[in-house]
Amino acid sequence: MIKEIQAKQLLSSSKIPDPWFGIKYNMNLYRGCSHQCIYCDSRSECYQIEDFTDTLVKTNALQLLPRELASKRVKGVIGTGSMNDPYAPIEKKYQLTRGALEIIEQFRFPVHILTKSDLVLRDLDYIQKINQHSQALVSFTITTSDDQLGKKVEPGAPLVSARLQAIKKLSEAGIATGVLLMPVLPFIEDNWENIRQIIEMAHQHGASYILASFGMTQRIGQQEYYYQKLDELFPGVRIKHQQRFGNDYVCPAVNADMLSKKFYSLCEDLGILTKIPYYRLQPAEKQLSLF
Ligand code: SF4
Prior knowledge:
Blueprint: E1 2-5, E2 11-13, E3 23-27, E4 30-31, E5 55-58, H1 61-70, E6 74-75, E7 77-80, H2 90-94, H3 96-107, E8 111-115, H4 124-133, E9 136-141, H5 147-153, H6 160-172, E10 176-181, H7 192-204, E11 209-212, E12 215-217, H8 222-233, H9 237-245, E13 250-252, H10 256-270, E14 282-283
Parallel strand pairs: 1-5, 3-7, 7-8, 8-9, 9-10, 10-11
Antiparallel strand pairs: 2-3, 4-5, 6-14, 12-13
Iron/sulfur cluster binds near residues 35 and 85.
């Protein structure tokens, strides 16, 4: 179900950019996500999202954003896509992400888009404009090299092959783009063949970086749903998972050390970065009234 809501605030900020993605200001235009990945952390009880199958649309987001950006003293990366996908199908109708990119471009802030969708290509015009004066990064989560397995673990998201094509188009257009190889689901995706294929495919399609984390996390709320899906889709895996991890928050891939070693070695051989190109914070210019 889609619900339209009025948000009080759009951006949350951290003192220093987060070390993984370089994001200083986090922007969520939607709450809930129809990509429905079986491992999604946003289902965790701590986030208090009542029904993750609902999508809440912050219909006043594009009124809030210019006001909030105008008050920022520090220019840092605006990130979008940490608790929902900014290019889930609902974006075709509401175009909040597109509208936000237009505003971000006018305020001359850098952006890091995290997505699983090739719909991001629709907004290549704004992404390129942002990239001319600041930094625009687009990262695609890819956890399996196999479209069929992708359909099981990320049932509402575009195919992995479509994401790779989007990486190709963005990199050809001069945008730094890469892969978030995370999570790596224990007993399902944690084999070298899968990891090697992701690295090689990413490289062939022009990815300039891959950020990897070999394992997953689990919390109350998310764990129950994940178990239910394991029973439905991967019989026998839930028992192995429970025996190995119990209620641990961090669930490392079974061969995490070996995978990690081989991952860094192959990325180095292929010249792929394993960190994002970092944006250095700058003082924000005083904005004239643009809106
Ligand atoms: S795309 Fe991201 S936010 Fe959406 S369901 Fe998947 S993991 Fe969750």
